[in-house]
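Researcher: I'd like a structural prediction for the single chain below. Treat it as a standalone chain; there are no partners to consider.
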Amino acid sequence: MMRLRREDPRVVGSFRLHRRLGAGGMGVVYLGSDRRGQRVALKVIRPDLAEDQEFRSRFAREVSAARRIRGGCTARLVAADLEAERPWFATQYVPGPSLHDKVAEEGPLTAVQIAAIGAALSEGLVAVHEAGVVHRDLKPSNILLSPKGPRIIDFGIAWATGASTLTHVGTAVGSPGFLAPEQVRGAAVTPATDVFALGATLAYAATADSPFGHGSSEVMLYRVVHEEPHLVGVPDALAPLVQACLAKDPEERPSTLQLSMRLKEIAAREAQGLPDGRPPAQRGRAERPTGRLAETPYAEQRTERRTGGSTAPRAQGGPQSGPQSRPSSSRNPGGPSSRPTAGRTGGRPAPRTTGAGRRPSRPDPKLMRQRLIVFVVVTLIVALGIALAQKL
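Model: Treating it as a single chain, here is the predicted structure.
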């Protein structure tokens, strides 16, 4: 926080201003309080922009977006005056550093921290998009790490789903390195636009650098559109998912709901020190150059468990399916090979039945243990995310 300057107002509306929190392209943000002592972050448009109708419109969009979004993912709107000589609005004050400052001061975050923050942000973006809003400028400096979890701020250039990203011909709105390719081209924005920015933000949290490096705005925008992201340093558990978020084609990116679920699983697994339980074939799908996120792998996983971990087709006849290829019952009494062979046709065993002609329903102990672990982990993930955020 910085002291108020001579030119800064001391009172705005019913709020008394105490400190400067920061300044941006649209105006200055102050720390203020109302008569009850409630602290707020109050943004005031700069004097030279207050007469500009375009900036007034952008400011009005920010207030409108803040009013439409529900849930704890953003700072709650407290008051606003869009008709004042210098329009302003106040939101609930969120204590805590930005993600940018956190990484700049302490270095890259751990896989558990990144996954927990990413899961909360993904869930928050679900609420943002359900309100029909696309943030369009999601980046580390617009994410505050509060004791109650990360909060998304600064909807100054937010726009309705499907709107163009251009304010002037040939000018993209947003921050180079975190813009999606469709924003650079001036195409319509969608929720997938914010997914790209979230992927770049998670990469920054893991490496303390933009996945598209540094350089002039023109160089950065060219890399976003034409070059693959640099993800060296991103933890292996997160790299395929971040790569999927940064796909050039919006249709190839995962949804915010998919991201939230997957990141919760990763956070829980990393916290327990467990390996990735997905089959190798499923893990490979998320690593394809297209960046498409694989569909949920659990159906195939269950199939492998039921068949003893092998999905290879069984032989149809031939010498390997005959009696000579199996040990006799005397050599392995009670084992799999000692089962009766009556009823087998073509090398395939007939389904086993009980005395009543029904299949046995005895559960697989390994499968039950796995399900129990997943249930407990998913139940505790919310508490884990909150605890991690409080330590930040």
